[in-house]
C-alpha cells in the first residue's frame, strides 16, 4: 500500500509538472527516490548534442559541463537515438566492463559518485529523442531488478506528460507572439467566443472600448453603442458561429463617422490554433472609414437595405459621376437612374450625389500596420 500511495501521488505530480514546468525538479527528486536513485533528469538529445529540460540532484555546474563538454562523449548517445520508446536503457547493460574507463565516467560521473544510470526514451523522431533517466549512486549500487520494475511503473506517465508540456509551452509561445502581432496593428481586433464574449482585444480595440463611441464592453461581451449597429453585430456573429460565414457591417459612430466591421469565422476546418484562437469562434476587425480602397458593397447594402440595382447605381455614381454616364455604363435609361437615386437619397438620408460619394467614402477601409 505504501508503494501504491507513493506512485499515485507521484503520478499526479508528474501531470501537474506538465502544465507548470517549475514543478519538474521536485517531481524528479521524488521519482529518483522511488526508483532507488540519487538524481534524475529530463533532457532532449540529437546527433549534435543535448538540451536540458529539468534536473534534480545534479548541480548546475555539472549540468553545464555535461552539455558543453561531455554530451558527445556519452557512450549511450547513439543508443538513446535508436532505442525504442519506453524500452529501458541501463548503462551497466550497454558497457558492463568499459564504462568505468570512459572519459565521461572518470571526469563527470565519478566525481559525483554515480555508478549507473537507468533511462527510457519518452518521445522520439528520426533525429532526436526526449529522455528520462535516474542516476544510481555508489550507495545505491548498480541498477537491480527492483529499480527496473519501479522505473517501468513511472515511465508511461512521463511519456504522456512530456508531449503535454511541449504542447503547452508551444501554445504559450504562440499566444505571446500572436498578442504582440495584434497589438502592432492600428485597427481594432476583437477575438470573440460563441456568446460574443471578449476572449482578447488588441491595443487599438481597447482604445475603442474605452472611448465608447462605437463599441463597448457590456458584461464582458462586445456591444455596439448604436441600436442598429448592435442588431447587425448580433446577426453577423450568429452567422459566423453557426455556419462560418464571413461578412461586413457598418457601425455608426459620432458626428456621422462610420466604422466598418469585418467578421471572420475561426471555427471552420481542423483546429490547430493557439489558446486564443481555440477559445474564439470569430475575429472582429473594426476601423474608422478612410479613403483609398474599394468600398465593401455588402456592408453598404446591408446597412442601408439597398436592392442589388440600387447598390449598382450607387457604386457606379461614385465611380462615374453624371447621370448620363451612369445610365450609359449600366445600360438603363437616365430616368431610371434618377428614380433609383431618389430612393437612395431617401434610404441614406442624403439629397445630393456628392453626399452619396462621401457616404461611400466613409465605408472605405484598409488594414494599416
Structure overview:
This protein is an alpha+beta fold. The chain has three domains: 2-172, Beta-Lactamase (2-Layer Sandwich), CATH 3.30.450.80; 184-288, Beta-Lactamase; 292-369, Orthogonal Bundle (Arc Repressor Mutant, subunit A). It is 50% helix and 21% strand. It contains 15 helices and twelve strands. It has helices spanning 2-19, 24-35, 60-70, 77-82, 91-94, 103-112, 145-183, 203-211, 227-243, 275-279, 297-304, 308-320, 323-330, 334-348, 353-361; strands at residues 39-46, 49-56, 88-90, 114-124, 128-137, 188-192, 198-201, 215-218, 221-224, 247-252, 258-265, 282-288. The strands form three sheets. A five-stranded antiparallel sheet has the order 2-1-5-4-3. Strand 8 (215-218) and strand 9 (221-224) form a beta hairpin. The model is unreliable at 170-174, 268-278 and 365-369 (pLDDT under 50).
Short recap of the structure:
This protein is of the alpha+beta class and 369 residues long. It is built from 15 helices and twelve strands.
Amino acid at each position: 500500500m505504501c508503494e501504491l500511495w507513493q506512485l499515485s501521488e507521484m503520478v499526479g505530480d508528474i501531470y501537474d509538472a506538465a502544465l507548470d514546468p517549475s514543478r519538474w525538479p521536485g517531481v524528479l527528486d521524488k521519482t529518483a527516490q522511488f526508483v532507488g536513485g540519487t538524481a534524475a533528469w529530463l533532457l532532449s538529445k540529437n546527433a549534435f548534442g543535448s538540451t536540458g529540460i529539468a534536473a534534480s540532484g545534479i548541480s548546475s555546474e555539472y549540468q553545464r559541463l555535461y552539455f558543453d563538454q561531455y554530451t558527445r562523449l556519452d557512450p549511450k548517445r547513439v543508443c538513446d537515438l535508436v532505442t525504442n520508446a519506453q524500452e529501458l536503457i541501463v548503462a551497466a547493460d550497454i558497457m558492463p566492463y568499459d564504462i568505468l574507463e570512459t572519459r565521461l565516467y572518470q571526469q563527470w560521473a565519478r566525481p559525483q559518485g554515480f555508478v549507473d544510470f537507468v533511462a527510457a526514451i519518452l518521445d522520439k523522431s528520426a533525429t532526436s529523442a526526449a529522455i528520462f533517466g535516474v542516476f544510481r549512486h555508489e550507495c545505491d549500487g548498480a541498477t537491480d531488478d527492483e529499480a527496473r520494475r519501479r522505473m517501468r511503473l513511472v515511465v508511461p506517465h512521463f511519456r504522456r506528460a512530456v508531449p503535454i508540456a511541449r504542447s503547452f509551452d508551444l501554445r504559450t509561445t504562440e499566444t505571446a507572439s500572436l498578442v504582440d502581432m495584434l497589438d502592432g496593428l492600428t485597427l481594432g481586433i476583437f477575438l470573440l467566443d460563441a456568446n460574443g464574449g471578449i476572449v482578447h482585444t488588441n491595443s487599438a480595440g481597447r482604445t475603442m472600448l474605452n472611448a465608447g463611441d462605437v463599441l463597448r464592453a457590456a458584461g464582458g461581451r462586445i456591444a455596439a453603442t448604436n441600436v442598429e449597429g448592435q442588431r447587425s453585430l448580433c446577426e453577423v456573429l450568429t452567422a459566423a458561429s453557426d455556419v462560418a460565414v464571413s461578412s461586413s457591417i457598418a457601425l455608426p459612430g459620432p458626428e456621422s463617422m462610420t466604422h466598418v466591421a469585418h467578421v471572420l469565422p475561426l471555427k471552420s476546418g481542423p483546429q490547430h490554433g493557439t489558446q486564443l484562437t481555440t477559445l474564439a469562434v470569430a475575429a472582429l476587425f473594426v476601423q474608422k472609414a478612410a479613403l483609398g480602397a474599394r468600398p465593401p458593397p455588402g456592408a453598404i447594402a446591408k446597412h442601408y437595405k439597398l436592392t442589388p440595382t440600387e447598390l449598382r447605381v450607387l457604386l457606379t455614381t461614385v465611380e462615374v459621376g453624371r447621370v448620363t454616364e451612369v445610365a450609359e455604363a449600366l445600360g438603363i435609361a437616365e430616368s431610371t437612374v434618377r428614380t433609383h437615386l431618389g430612393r437612395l437619397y431617401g434610404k441614406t438620408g442624403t439629397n445630393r450625389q456628392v453626399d452619396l460619394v462621401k457616404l461611400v467614402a466613409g465605408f472605405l477601409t484598409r488594414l494599416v500596420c
